[in-house]
Design goal:
The structure is a homodimer. The first copy, chain A, has about 600 residues and is α/β, with parallel strands linked by helices. Chain A is about 65% helix and about 5% strand. Chain A has 23 helices and 5 strands. In chain A, helix 5 packs antiparallel against helix 6. Chain A is elongated. Chains A and B meet through helix 19, helix 20, helix 21, strand 4 and strand 5 of A and helix 19, helix 20, helix 21, strand 4 and helix 23 of B. Chains A, B: Its main location: membrane.
Chain lengths: ~600, ~600
């Protein structure tokens, strides 16, 4: 086991090595921006999928929707640059809300972020697999298996530690950025040379029922689906401590670069899709269709598909950085199990990484790795946490009073807009799956409070008055035996060392055997009384428990009862199957008894 | 858990209730003969399936093959009536071979029987499901699920105890016998009135390539497949102790009745299939086709199908009686884990029942619940154990010298014939799957020897010289702590009661915290030294283990080290998730250490 762990996870790192795990900007961009950048792989497609419900003519609306999303991106980026400077210790919306709004708001943000991290893994991996299947349709039957395998691969990489990941992961991010920008550039040269091919050229008229309520709702839903492009722009604000110093400044610069790249790629792809007249297909992504249109199914097409899969894999990895950090902070505040604060021996929050892996694999299994089915759940949490973070930021700035009015206005506007988008997202995608998130967030918040309450009560209960001095307390020792052997002799030796009040107990099914046992015991005479219990039901455990029950009732207030259970240490694992489980069953039955100490005495079998 | 167990398994029975679990003949027939009788549901079909490989004309050979099988049945029945009288304590081939041949032969018989019990469950349940699917084809997609469910149902019924099963099971056996006999009678009246419909009437000529080597091999394979009709006739000889006294006489009478019924039904069905010109179909059994031919799809047809399913369910149940009894006897001889000898609180061998369930479910899953795929594995073990049992019987009779020559000749002939059938079965079905059984039997026998060897060595190792007197041995006590609390105070009280040599140990990640801890400890001053271990890797377990290592090296020869591990007894199961697994991990790491006693001290949380 240990060797297997070393092989996958690597050797342990010392605590002081934490400091070395700081990232330069170009590596941090790869680690923290892949979530945001990779969303261009599916955002345009999700807009077109909703518009297709109105009619192909409605595809023209993808351009104003994309522009609205670009405006939203600008607003959010400006706000988050401020947050990075004001809260360099990371934690994003949760910490901002905790410091400047109140606990309930911070817990709502925390719940929303946790859910979105899990969704990021599920959506990115599903979408990455879709990109791969567009290029290699023969893999279609293994869609879900591939997705689960990729999540498990991510888990192993992250249990190894963040810095190695950054080195491994920088290359594909830049490959993706360059290949997508190349595709956009070549695409535009083609259009410039050959003219428009798409719906615009075909002069398709917008659907007539566009301006009804249902039509408007669909337009909003298309916008809300496109907003999935913005998921992950907050990742940098949660990861500031991982930057080289001056961390806040480097983080803010990285954020600006990320938003510029994101905006260019998203708008470029949406424009090309429109210009080429591309509609969503079941087993081929929109980006794959554009790439095929621009490059044909040549080497560059495959580079785009592979780079897309890789960056979506990195996007999922963003969650593997953010989620364990977030849950560790929440757990420090005692709203989550304390074990989430413990770093493993590679200096990462191993439990958080494992938890994220399990949850996202569950989501992938439930939704059969289908990106379109997961998208309606997505983005609600992101925009809710955007809103709460900016709200807290604005409150903090208003309190400090030294910041300019213009800046506060920008953030106030950002809060308003992202709050509006949250509502639009919930309303327009409610029946499609957004309802699940609106149920899940309160449930998670309720869980936070239950956990916190439990910890508070326990701490109260365990508190010790330092004037209290522990006194020596005697114990009675019980040795369950099935015959006379070296194991029994060893247990008696130990028992004599810890108490003067010892009794050996055996369970017998028939009187004859019991008599022989009594005779042999008296011949041996180890100065310990033997009690023989009769078992009408032929079980060993029940009569022993009954006997211990009577002793518990008879004993004095503070006295302990110690039960000695022999543990055979076998040389080969399968030998364990050959020795009676009686000891194991007895331990399991006794471990929840008050005042009963269970002591396991090892006996090494040499054979 | 306890209540759930009571609901499914029933209340515990007292040991003296064993005596009451004796069966009258008519109930014993239902319990022990269902395996043999039920095989008429598939034996004819398996013959025709092989003959179909030659051609429909070859179906005429089903009649001579059936007659050969009837002769074989007579021979085996006569032999086993002798065995029942000579070995009334049950155990069948295993005990006969152990007493009168030698240990290797008895182990081969034991392995063969064990494998066949598992196959009986898999084949009978698969075939029972096939009967059900013939009547209700809409259930087809759930074939494997249904089979697994039925095995689990059998497991629960058998964990409840044998007598209740007999009462529940008698009705369907007699329903099956009566309905099949009725079907045969009505079928013959129809033929008598209307003349032959089948191949005979159509004058189909036997295939020309019949008398080649390949053709002969197929004929032998058809015969070997038909021999599956004889599986289970030995069940009564293994179950003699369950009969009312005089048990051997009652068992012998029951066996004769069983063979008569089996012969009539098997030959009747084979004859009707031939007369009606019925060929095997993929999703409908031969018996279903006959029943439809005779009764149409009316109520009587459904009675036949349901009765067939039920008796095949009972056939599987035969194994649930025989397998645990057999493994209990083998385990008493120390060739299997001792836990197979332990009766559960309903007086049945619970572990044997559970083992049989697991193995047969595995077989059903691997072979997708397909009877035809399982049949080639079947019967090899049965005929091998028939041969060994008769061989042993013959040796015993020759030794006693008081039995007549004629009787010995009958059994010698039986031995010869069943030995021949074993060889035919292996050779003719070798590539179809019989090879698996010829591999599995030696593997199981090898396992028997490995287990027996291990037990012998251990017994030698544990043997105690009664002149040896256990001496008092001191222990050093280690209390791992993470802070100062009531839990620590309680542990120290216990430690002071069992030793004078106590040390508290804590693991710390940073110096500042360690200093505070040291200061607080000195203020408290419980008269126990505190050792603070530094952890460069931020893990708690590794430094503790290293510290215990050093103590193990320093201590005297016979001294023990006791590690006190607190166990929080939580009020609700999920509270366990909120308390650090450190104690659990520590216990797991220490339990295999020599000379280290792990003592679990309960601390009840009231919140």
């Amino acid at each position: 086991m240990g060797q297997l762990k070393r092989f996958f996870i690597g050797s342990p790192l010392r605590t002081r090595q934490i400091a070395h795990e700081k990232l330069p900007k170009w590596k941090a961009l790869a680690i923290f921006s892949s979530d945001a950048l990779s969303s261009v792989a599916y955002a345009t497609e999700e807009i077109l999928l909703v518009l297709a419900l109105i009619g192909f003519g409605a595809f023209a609306y993808s351009l104003p929707i994309a522009i609205a999303i670009l405006v939203l991106l600008t607003v959010v980026t400006l706000s988050y640059r401020q947050i990075v400077h004001a809260f360099p210790s990371g934690g994003g919306a949760y910490i901002v809300a905790r410091e400047h709004v109140n606990t309930p708001a911070s817990l709502v943000a925390g719940a929303a972020l946790m859910i979105d991290y899990v969704l990021t893994v599920a959506v990115s991996i599903s979408s990455g697999v879709a990109a791969l299947l567009s290029a290699f349709p023969s893999l279609l039957p293994w869609r879900v298996e591939l997705a689960v395998f990729l999540v498990m691969l991510l888990m192993i990489l992250n249990l190894r530690g963040i810095r190695e990941s950054a080195t491994v992961f920088a290359f594909p991010t830049y490959l993706f950025i360059l290949s997508i920008l190349l595709m956009i550039a070549v695409g535009w040269i083609q259009i410039w040379k050959e003219g428009w091919h798409g719906y615009h050229a075909q002069g398709a008229a917008p659907a007539a029922d566009m301006w009804t309520w249902a039509g408007m709702l669909l337009l909003f839903r298309a916008f809300a689906s496109g907003c999935s492009a913005l998921t992950g722009v907050e990742a940098i604000s949660n990861g500031v401590p991982a930057f080289r110093s001056p961390a806040p400044r480097n983080a803010a610069i990285t954020m600006t670069w990320m938003s510029l790249l994101l905006g260019m790629m998203f708008f470029g792809i949406t424009l090309l899709a429109y210009a080429f007249g591309i509609a969503p297909k079941e087993h081929e992504t929109v980006v794959s269709q554009i790439a095929e249109h621009v490059f044909g199914r040549g080497p560059l097409y495959y580079v785009i598909q592979v780079a897309t899969t890789l960056i979506l894999f990195l996007a999922a990895n963003t969650s593997f950085t953010g989620f364990p950090q977030l849950t560790s902070i929440i757990a420090q505040d005692r709203f989550l199990p304390r074990k989430l604060t413990m770093r493993g021996d590679r200096l990462v929050f191993s439990n958080g990484i494992a938890l994220l892996s399990v949850l996202s694999i569950l989501l992938i299994l439930v939704f059969h790795g289908d990106t379109h089915a997961l998208i309606p759940l997505y983005a609600v949490g992101v925009f809710l946490s955007f809103t709460i973070a900016q709200w807290g930021m604005m409150k903090a700035l208003l309190r400090e009073k030294k910041k300019g009015i213009a800046r506060i206005a920008v953030i106030g506007f950002g809060t308003l807009i992202t709050g509006l988008v949250t509502v639009i997202t919930i309303v327009s995608k409610f029946t499609e799956g957004a309802w699940m998130v609106t149920v899940a967030i309160p449930v998670v918040v309720w869980m936070f409070y239950v956990i916190r309450n439990h910890y508070s009560e326990i701490a109260k209960e365990l508190r010790l008055d330092l004037h209290f001095q522990p006194q020596q307390v005697k114990t009675k020792v019980i040795i369950p035996i099935s015959g006379i052997s070296k194991v029994v002799a060893q247990s008696i030796s130990y028992a004599k060392g810890i108490s003067d009040d010892i009794v050996a107990v055996t369970v017998d099914f028939d009187d004859e055997h019991a008599g022989q046992m009594r005779e042999k015991w008296e011949k041996w005479n180890p100065n310990v009384p033997l009690i023989i219990l009769r078992s009408p039901y032929r079980t060993v455990i029940a009569p022993l428990l009954k006997y211990i029950d009577t002793l518990e009732k008879e004993k004095e207030e503070n006295e302990f009862i110690t039960v000695l259970v022999p543990q055979f240490i076998v040389r080969k694992w399968w030998h364990a199957l050959l020795h009676n489980q009686t000891a194991f069953l007895l331990k399991a039955a006794l471990i929840y008894r008050k005042d009963v100490v269970v002591s396991t005495i090892p006996f090494h079998l040499h054979e």
